[in-house]
Specification:
The strands form five sheets. Strands 3-12-16-15-14-17 form a six-stranded antiparallel beta barrel. It has a four-stranded antiparallel β-sheet with strand order 4-11-9-6, with no helix packed on it. It has four helices and 23 strands. The protein starts with a helix and ends with a helix. The protein has about 400 residues and is of the alpha+beta class. It has helices spanning about 1-35, 100-130, 135-165, 360-400; strands at about 35-40, 45, 45-65, 65-70, 75-80, 85-90, 95-100, 165-170, 175-180, 185, 195-200, 200-205, 210, 220-225, 235-245, 250-255, 265-285, 290, 300-305, 310-320, 325-330, 340, 355. The longest helix is centred in the last third of the chain and has 41 residues, at about 360-400.
């Protein structure tokens, strides 16, 4: 009876194990039958962000309104202290002039200073003699009087020099637009000697843009202005669209309230935003595949999700705004942070297993390739130097 009971228990255990074994075999077969693609694919995640449609262009900082400063008489330019386009502060001396009267005063002042130096030297000598017992009191008193008279005259000439000295002093914080003065030459009263622009009277003007690019652009659109070869960026508003006189070409003018680090005539990059959508799920444009529906009348769009085991799942989505770099997607169970294939091609299908691009491996390969090229380049340089030395040696032998 005990033996029969053991046999029955063993049969029961085997019966219970059979479904588990069957399920394992089925899963193994499914795993072995799942198609695999050896090609490597880039992987990214879906993101929730603000999507902007924009137009890129280049431009330049220009003056919007001008302040001209001129002379009432012809004067010679002694010095120009700034260049065109420079940023200036109120009170800065921009240009200094001189006339004949000032030069005459400067000559007299120089002569007085020399006389004073001689008289002071004589006074020191007389005082030394007095200290040694010589009777030089009268001479000291007379010389002291002469020195005081010369000092008074020098003070008077200094005051007169201040009255005739001429300079252009900046009345504003802003920029120099144009300078019509050269050191050593004469400036006249017919042409403004300098043209300034107030700090707030500056605009950014774009290079000519094709009208077709401005289909959705309107006055009031915002733009991001970034200085070329600089990390500074500014927010600006489009306030004017100009005709250029050439068909289908326009220029755009922008105003900004922040010009702290800008200079006149400085070149900038302009990113004009004419449509914006916030809080949307986006993926790179290339991650979305478009295919015709079965009836061939409508288009359908797909992305390829990828799991931790690198298995791909085809997912139909709806698409929205597209700025050429990112595209808005939506659909059932579409959410932020889902891993997707960025560069799908005709080989990739639903339920296939693929390989991911290993960015670490790519970086290492690039570094190895760079090192190899550098070594080859160094060797080539050595070979060239060796050849040049041999050429020189052979030429010398020919002369002998």
């Amino acid at each position: 009876k005990k033996e029969k009971t053991l046999i029955i228990n063993k049969k029961d255990n085997i019966i219970w194990l059979l479904p588990c074994i069957l399920i394992f075999v089925i899963l193994l077969m499914v795993g072995m039958c799942t198609p695999r693609i050896n090609e490597k694919y880039m992987v990214d995640t879906t993101k929730r962000e603000t999507l902007e449609i924009f137009t890129k262009m280049k431009g330049k900082v220009e003056a919007k309104d001008f302040l001209s400063i001129g002379l009432d008489v012809q004067l010679q330019v002694d010095d120009v202290f700034f260049k065109e386009g420079a940023r200036i502060k109120k009170g800065d001396i921009l240009i200094k002039f001189s006339d004949y009267k000032e030069r005459d005063l400067n000559s007299k002042m120089q002569e007085l200073k020399q006389n004073l130096a001689v008289k002071n030297s004589q006074l020191r000598f007389l005082k030394n003699q007095y200290g040694e017992g010589a009777d030089t009191t009268n001479d000291i008193n007379n010389l002291t009087g002469e020195i005081k008279a010369l000092e008074g005259e020098l003070i008077k000439l200094n005051n007169e020099s201040g009255l005739v000295r001429r300079a252009v002093i900046s009345p504003i914080d802003g920029y120099i637009v144009k300078i019509n003065a050269l050191k050593g030459q004469y400036a006249d009263s017919l042409t403004p000697v300098i043209v300034l622009a107030k700090e707030q009277d500056v605009k950014i003007v774009s290079d000519p843009v094709r009208e077709s690019q401005l289909q959705y652009v309107n006055v009031g659109n915002t733009a991001s202005i970034s200085v070329i070869n600089n990390n500074n960026s500014y927010e600006a508003i489009l306030y004017k669209i100009n005709d250029t006189g050439i068909e289908n070409l326009k220029t755009l003018e922008f105003l900004t309230s922040d010009f702290k680090n800008l200079s006149l005539n400085q070149e900038v990059n302009i990113r004009l935003i004419h449509q914006k959508k916030e809080n949307v799920i986006t993926v790179p444009v290339n991650a979305v595949v478009k295919r015709k529906s079965r009836n061939g009348k409508t288009d359908k769009y797909y992305i390829y999700l990828i799991d931790k085991n690198n298995k791909v799942t085809e997912k139909e989505v709806l698409v929205g705004m597209n700025n050429g770099e990112k595209i808005e997607i939506s659909g059932e169970n579409i959410k932020e942070g889902m891993e997707i294939v960025v560069n799908p091609n005709d080989k990739i299908k639903n339920n296939v297993i693929v390989k991911r691009i290993d960015y670490k491996e790519i970086k290492e390969n690039r570094e190895r390739e760079l090192e190899k090229l550098q070594r080859e380049n160094e060797q080539k340089k050595k070979d060239i130097e060796k050849n040049e030395a041999e050429i020189i040696r052979l030429k010398r032998n020919e002369k002998k």
